[in-house]
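#struct-pred
JK: can someone run the complex with zinc ion? inputs below
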Amino acid sequence: MTASFDWRGFDPGGDVVRIFDTTMRDGEQSPGATMTSKEKLEVAKTLSRLGVDVIEAGFPAASPDDLRAVRGVAETVGLEPVVGRPQPGPPIVCGLARATKGDIDKAWEAVRPAARPRIHTFLATSPIHREHKLRMGKAEVLARIREMVAYARSLCADIEFSAEDAGRTELDFLAEAFRAAVDAGATTLNVPDTVGYVFPDEMEERIRTVREAVGTGVVISVHCHDDLGLAVANSLAAVRAGARQVEVAVNGIGERAGNTSLEEIVMALRTRRAKLGLDTRVDATQLTRASHLVSRVTGMIVQPNKAIVGANAFAHEAGIHQDGMLKHAETYEIMRPETVGAAHTQLVLGKHSGRAAFRARLAELAYPLEGDALDKAFARFKELADKKKSITDADLVALVSDDIAMPVERIRLCALQVACGDLGMPTATVRLETGDPEAAQEHVLAKVGTGPVDAVYRAIDDVAARLAGEAAAVDLLEYAIQSVTSGIDALGEVRVRIRPKDPRARLVPEGGEQARVFHGHGTDTDIVVASAKAYLSAVNRVLAARAAMEERAERGVA
Ligand code: KIV
Ligand code: ZN
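RT: done, structure tokens with the ligand placed:
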């Protein structure tokens, strides 16, 4: 049976550009950016509050975990608008599917609880993909598009079809492929520049050709990759030519060099609205918060000079610039920092602040915590307030983000002490716990390392090996530390990326070639403790992924 399609706001040629967010699908394809279901749900809430029109929540056929995560988003964020969402109604929740019945069935199973479900199915159309990947002729490609789009449409009323590698597809065949998709029931046609190859004038030509070929009854969409640094420029070119949906990811994360950056597209359209006469429905004041959250849960650091959300995006260093700014902000500023939610950090709370003030400030920062989550965060806030005189918004966000980014803790840190200096033998004594909190097993051990962090990591490695043997051994690929705010009592924030050592334990995703990279994140006023928390959260992710893989193998599921 076909679910009824909500046509409200469906104006394929209007002045609203729909924002289709793929942070949780293409964005998650960045190495090491894997998110847990809990993190995905938090990102989905943030995207809904931001006001995106479509959330591509994942690729349900990739694994049972992916299917569950997409379904979790459909059942929550996809049913009710979250508090603060700038548009009426929840966002469309979308699942990706290759053009096969199996994939489409899984995508439908995952998205169908949403009030506005969408299936996004794709098939490559370029000569190089047809010949070497699909081994299909043009006629077969067209037949598969017709068959699979029609099948998807028999399940769901909102169908997006993508012609993978559209950027390198012959223009006449691209038009033919999209006509076939529309005839079979597609409601959105997506033009992906899968390998980030085209120039803006070429993208404009592609979109115009597709528009002329299919008429005005469908939304034309664009999906660009940034291999040549042209994703935003190409997306804007597509919009000029008539595309009314842009596929984006927060912080521009995604396969290889990433996708079109959400914040850049939103602010380019808004800042230059007088030029294009187009806008999105996004609440731009939520952009900085969304950027921080995605950076934390994916472990992907935002470069300081990144447009809109980088730490230096609104910093003026040169004397001439500072002088100009003091005289008139518009001399050197085309957007105000507060427009994107990047106003200066305020000193807000301290040791004597109560639960109500803490809760209210978190709600203002768009973290409306209640119940257990609020109790836990408040306890951590009190601990921090004992060590740090004034607690800023950035501290509060770091504090609650740690909880959001916490995977199931198979190993927990109870206590830690280090001895270090330049006399050699830096030593860490660590008390860790494993197993259920009610029947936990305690492990106390001391280790020597090249420094205090290395000594702590060796102790954690030992305990991980007790739980999972050689499969738990990992290589530390990256370790980064920065302070959340300034001042000697600032919180230290550590991010790590690790990879399982044993090739058999590398948890390679189905069809993937690269071993998976896992990230971890931790904050504390003590940087060795922050380092331990970050490493533990990454190791716990490896252990969780391993357990899920073993469980699937036991059940005989791929
Ligand atoms: O880049 C691409 O072609 C994609 C499609 C699945 C839309 O991500
Ligand atoms: Zn892509």
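RT: quick notes.
The pocket of 3-methyl-2-oxobutanoic acid (ligand 1) is lined by residues 26, 122, 162, 164, 190, 192, 194, 223, 225 (CB under 6 Å).
The chain is about 40% helix and 20% strand.
JK: thanks, will look after standup
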